[in-house]
Amino acid sequence: NTLFDIWIKYKPRLPEGYYNERLVKVGDTLAQIKEYKLALQCYERYLQQFISVNLDDVMFDVQHFKSAFFPNGVRDKNVAITFHALQARNVCIYQMVCSRDRNLQNGESLQTCLNALTSLQLTMQVALPQENLCWLIYNGTIHIYTISRHLMVMGHSAKVLEYLLWASICMESSIPLLSVHYLTWRATLYTAVSQCYFDCQAGIHGEVFARRGLIKIDELKQLENISSSLEHTETEKIFREATLKMSVMIFKRAVYESRRKSNGFRRESKANPRKAVNLSWPRTTTERLLVAMFDGAAAQFLAILEALSDRSRNLLPPHPPVPDEVQIRDVTSELFSAGLEILSGNRLKKRKQLVRSLNFQFILVGNIFVITAGEKGVSGDAAVEFVKLAFSYEEWNVFYSAFEFVDNFLQAQDDPTWKKAEIELKLLTLMQPIVFPGKFERSFSVSDGGNSKEGSTHQGSLKTQTIRSECCSGSLKPGDPFRDLMILATTALSYVSTFEQNVHPDKEILVDVVMCLWQKCKTELQQIQKSGSHCLEYIHKHQAYQWVHILWITNAIIEKSNIADTNVMFAEITLCLAAILENVADS
């Protein structure tokens, strides 16, 4: 209130243009320090000079929009600041939604985000014909991508597809933005559109759009070869990155469809995994396609990750139905086998297991990769994602072997980012015997200098057994039905209690841990709850103390990790604990 009292006081004393310019700049400063509510008031106070009604009422009709905010036309000297205020207003609205409902559980939150996208689209539509406003178009594509990416992660790809398409076409329609300087960003938008199609189960359209992107990139490359203002090595790097992004999206469908098309022919005999580890690369049809489409292990590993990634597939069951085609299942296994071979270092002449290379780094953003240039090495982020995918697909041989490679790398790092990844993978190893009981037999690993490492165990690798023994309470013996549950519960609680916030596991992992514990304990706990005033007698008779203890720990995990608002089921957990404690008090 003090801030706006000052504005009201000085408005009649300052030139109108200067006042408006300062007002918007103050909004920008507030937005930079994440005071979005105050910043929004600055932008709206500026925009209210054009219109007295609700600003949202004019955001859905282009003619009404132009007449309201640009009565003197879009060539007026003040249009740039007006466009900027309009865009910044939408960004603030989106950020305010994120602060109160990050997971968009409220339908109104989702609609507000979509309204912001529509408003950004309208603003760009009016500004697009003005070449001198190309910076507004560029900024608009960034805002659209940011909001759309969030909605894609939340499962709303179908709703944002049109906006990402619009952003891509705007980049192509603005002559200044067609330069090589903006190609990396344009390729990122193309990738997002293609990913949207895949999320909507329209893979053929995703591949077609990626091929269209390759054509656009090639057209620009031909023009650049005629007249280049940049260093040749720099332009080559930019074109290589953009081409790689498109090729990865093409491979995502082609690796499966090529096998489907050959369905009528004799099926290639599947190599025995024990023998395959000693064969020379490329060993399978999938690996031959990788070699044909991509140069270098890093690019091939990226293609493998994207081909395996499926936004509808969670870490834990239930998963989407597995395709009936044997060929598709073979491709999935071959992709994991190829990824493990690269990860192990056997694919590279120099046996570097993991490199978080400054020359080549993957940054994973909701299964969309932003890639910088380089030739060799697999980033730590990509390797961690590969292990999680192996867990999701229940490829246990790959999971065990990849976990050993990645965990060795993570333990050697000091950065909190890697500590967080290490914690997440350890939680997966602890959830495994609970979610997938009896599925731990391991019979082969990867080649090591031509010699395959073989072993067989019903409890995973030696490293995963070590993790369980380190986390195990001394009072719990092997074979105790509570052992695995108690190890998981106490370990997760220790992670969210003793580490800094930036080292806590992702909320998605913690939600999976809590749901895993609850599903395993729910039936027994509800029986305890129903026993009413005989609660203590029931607990003693059925030796059910451990169930209540696990419930207590589970509730503590929810409280300390601030995930209570991510799933309505967590309210049931808290209520169950409260009811049992009340019954115990009354007993």
TrEMBL record:
Entries under InterPro entries matching the protein: CFAP54
UniProt xrefs under Pfam families: CFAP54_N (PF14858)
Any one of the GO BP annotations: cilium assembly
Protein name as annotated: CFA54 protein
